[in-house]
Design brief:
The radius of gyration is 42 Å and the shape is rod-shaped. It has two domains: 2-88; 106-338, BirA Bifunctional Protein, domain 2. It has helices at residues 2-14, 20-30, 36-42, 49-88, 106-119, 134-137, 171-180, 221-236, 289-294, 311-319, 326-329, 332-335, and strands spanning 124-125, 131-133, 157-159, 164-166, 185-194, 206-216, 242-249, 252-261, 278-287, 303-310. It has twelve helices and ten strands. The protein is α+β, with helices and mostly antiparallel strands and 341 residues long. Bound molecules: 3,4-dihydroxyphenylalanine (DAH).
């Protein structure tokens, strides 16, 4: 009897069940109505009286072990079952759940495109400060002392006498570049600029510009036109036409504004070009000799051209956006539309 009990204890200890069938086989053998423990209990009658107590206890231990093990196996089989079920629901052929990605802001995308086009023509990129002194924002750029652009309504002054301002244009950077480098200079200067203007659909107190500067021996107005014509065609398509209109800027002489043919209506007339067939995209001109001189560059040896364009203005044109404020309000419903840029 003792050997039988020990053998069954060993069997119980080693028992395993992964399937319902295995579990049922165990149950029939150790728990069911005709189980092996019961069989042994029947045999108690034949055990010598002095051994009965000990055998009885051993049989009880066996019975408990059989039951404990059964509970354990039920748990095992259930766990296995639910693991199998959850596997059944994983469809490995499905595409992975998408991770939402951010997008490039349309102003940044536009700036990147402008940089790319000019870098292919040999222009590098320069950076200048947004908080600027009067010299770099105005005086070195040949602004007369009482020029209207210096007036309070246009400029954010941070300090007076000596004046520190939030730069009103990126032209400050052309001064800094010319002060610090010798020609040949071929650079573009993107950045944020500030003007004390009411915020409306068409004007804002800050926006972005790209300044361009080319200074070397023998740079002519033809170089200016060729460069900007090439830019317009790269940016707005090979069929883009350009026209230059005489204009005035203190820092260039002569000065010109450049229009491109309206690519929205193909010059048939629409509200973007105000039915003229042309839209203005930038100001430009030959660097005024006074400006070269202010930066220590001899205007008798060197000449140059410069240009400046608003990034928002181009982004509005290119992406047909009719309200400048959308670019700085960070409304994701607006920004999402540019996610592929
Ligand atoms: N600084 C001018 C502005 O803010 C833009 C500009 C025009 C820049 C002509 C230039 C230029 O370099 O040559 O309106």
């Amino acid at each position: 009897m003792k050997e039988k009990i020990d053998a069954l204890l060993g069997e119980i200890k080693a028992a395993q069940a992964e399937t319902e069938e295995q579990l049922e086989a165990y149950r029939l053998r150790f728990i069911g109505t005709k189980n092996v423990v019961k069989d042994l209990m029947q045999g108690m009658r034949d055990v010598a009286p002095d051994l009965r107590k000990e055998m009885g206890q051993s049989l009880n231990t066996l019975k408990n072990a059989a039951q404990d093990k059964f509970q354990e196996l039920v748990g095992d089989v259930n766990r296995q079952k639910s693991a199998d079920e959850s596997h059944d629901h994983v469809d490995l052929t499905l595409p992975a759940a998408g991770t939402p990605l951010g997008g490039v802001h349309p102003i940044q995308a536009m700036e990147d495109q402008i940089i790319q086009i000019f870098s292919r023509m040999g222009f590098n990129v320069s950076d200048g400060p947004e908080i600027e002194d009067d010299w770099h924002n105005f005086t070195a750029l040949n602004f007369p002392p009482n020029h209207p652009a210096r007036e309070m309504q246009d400029t954010f002054f941070i300090e007076r006498n000596p004046d520190m301002v939030l730069r009103t244009h990126t032209s400050n950077t052309q001064i800094r570049v010319m002060e610090g480098q010798k020609p040949p200079i071929r650079t573009i200067c993107p950045g944020r600029v500030y003007r004390n203007e009411t915020i409306t659909a068409r004007s804002h107190c800050f926006f972005h510009q790209v300044e361009g500067l080319y200074v070397d021996k023998g740079v002519s107005f033809k170089d200016l036109k060729d460069t900007l014509y090439h830019f317009a065609r790269e940016m707005y398509g090979k069929n883009t036409k350009v026209r230059f209109r005489p204009s005035y800027f203190p820092f260039t002489e002569p000065s010109a504004e450049m229009d491109i043919s309206c690519f929205i209506c193909d010059q048939k007339g629409c509200n973007v070009c105000k039915y003229t067939g042309w839209v203005e995209i930038l100001g430009s001109g030959m660097v005024d000799p006074n400006v070269l001189e202010a930066c220590g560059i001899d205007p008798d040896v060197y000449s140059g051209f410069a240009f400046g364009m608003g990034i928002e203005r181009q982004a509005m044109l290119k992406y047909q956006v009719n309200d400048l404020r959308l670019f700085s309000e960070n409304d994701v419903r607006f920004l999402k539309q540019f996610q592929s840029l």
